[in-house]
Write a structure and sequence with these properties.
The protein is of the alpha+beta class. It has twelve helices and ten strands. It has two domains: 84 residues; 253 residues, BirA Bifunctional Protein, domain 2 (2-Layer Sandwich). The structure holds phenylalanine. It catalyses: tRNA(Phe) + L-phenylalanine + ATP = L-phenylalanyl-tRNA(Phe) + AMP + diphosphate + H(+).
Length: 378
């Protein structure tokens, strides 16, 4: 028994002295491991007489418990100390500047959307958004294209299969589903309706975003980007529309000699409707915006549609057309991005090729501002 006490005292001292978790574990193995002295002491019980055993067993068990709890306590202390020193050595200085070369770049479409927001914010326009999965009513009906309207056919719409209504029974006909038929929006114009219904008049906003049409060649992709513009207020007329577009294009292309031509056209949701053309010339194989389209070496290029908001559209969106008038326009973002930054294949916009992006992309920290020029610094 005295031998056991000596062994115990020595072990407790060694445990107290252990400077690391590894050193502590060596002590655990030496005492409590299969061939440890505590285990060996327990084995001697087998050769003892019952009387001897009755005396020795509790003593050995007590030693075992004492050693185990000493190891446990020391382990907790060592772990706490290790965490402390780790925390002390791994400090992070949040005041240090960011890494010099940020990875990745901003896609030209995102860049142009930021430029649009910047220019139009300066003119007092808010930025609105709407869902890309839209219902038939917002995309067509409320824009004065009821179910039989021929203009619907021009949109190459992606429709969703008929939805199953909440009751669980599929509707027997698409008519029963009525206006709730779902589709991928074919233009950003439904945001006009949603914004007027939500905010009423007066209103001044742009709505940039993705739109979808079943169409694909060198100049058309099934998904592309538009920006909608909408102004509703008292005494709004076509002159406001022309000034707004002219002011925007001058700021966007960063040149004063922008000439617009408004060409009579037709959209169900505007009356009168005009197509917006801009004068340009060819420099090498690149189109450069500027100058009068009828001038020597110049021509006109269509950039989008626009017009005065049709009274029926105002009515359907809950705005009184006798009190308020409005103008609206829709421009292709990809198109004006290509013109400004000189790309000639639309499809490359959506290939996700990192070489294209590193060539045409913009630095993540170069935010477009009016004072520094909306385009990225070269
Ligand atoms: N939504 C039309 C289109 O996608 C563009 C447009 C918008 C025309 C607003 C007039 C007014 O072709």
């Amino acid at each position: 028994m005295t031998e056991l006490t000596l062994q115990k005292d020595a072990a407790l001292a060694a445990i107290a002295d252990a400077a690391s978790l590894e050193a502590l574990d060596e002590q655990r193995v030496a005492a409590l491991g299969k061939k440890g002295w505590v285990s060996l002491a327990l084995k001697t019980l087998g050769q003892m007489s019952p009387e001897q055993r009755q005396e020795a067993a509790p003593a050995i068990q007590a030693v075992r418990a004492e050693i185990a709890s000493a190891i446990e306590a020391k382990k907790a202390a060592l772990e706490a100390a290790e965490l402390e020193s780790q925390l002390a050595s791994e400090t992070l200085d949040l005041t240090l500047p960011a890494p010099v070369r940020p990875q990745g770049s901003v896609h030209p479409v995102s860049q142009v959307m930021d430029e649009l927001a910047e220019i139009f914010a300066d003119l007092g326009f808010a930025v609105a958004t709407g869902p890309e999965i839209e219902d038939d009513w917002h995309n067509f009906t409320a824009l004065n294209m009821d179910e039989s309207h021929p203009a619907r056919a021009m949109h190459d719409t992606f429709y969703f299969p008929d939805a199953v209504p909440d009751g669980g029974q599929p509707a027997s006909s698409s008519e029963a589903l009525g206006q709730k038929k779902m589709l991928l929006r074919t233009h950003t114009s439904p945001v006009q309706i949603r914004s007027m219904k939500e905010q009423g008049a007066p209103i001044r906003l742009i709505a940039p975003g993705r739109v979808y049409r079943s169409d694909s060649d060198a100049t058309h992709t099934p998904m592309f980007h538009q920006v909608e513009g909408l102004v509703v207020d008292r005494d709004i007329h076509l002159g406001h529309l022309k000034w707004t577009l002219e002011t925007f294009f001058k700021a966007f292309f960063e040149r004063e000699d922008i000439t617009l031509r408004l060409r009579p056209s037709y959209f169900p949701f505007t009356e009168p409707s005009v197509e917006v053309d801009v004068g340009y010339s060819n420099e090498g194989n690149r189109r450069v915006v500027g100058g009068h389209g009828d001038a020597e070496g110049h021509d006109w290029m269509e950039l989008g549609g626009s017009g005065m908001v049709n009274r029926r559209v105002l009515e359907m969106a809950g705005v009184d057309p006798d009190e308020y008038q409005g103008f609206a326009f829709g421009l292709g973002i990809d198109r004006i991005a290509m013109l400004k930054y000189g790309m000639n294949d639309l499809r490359a916009f959506f290939d996700g090729d990192p070489r294209w992006l590193s060539h045409y992309g913009f630095g993540a920290v170069d935010q477009p501002t009016l004072s520094a020029g909306v385009g990225a610094p070269s």
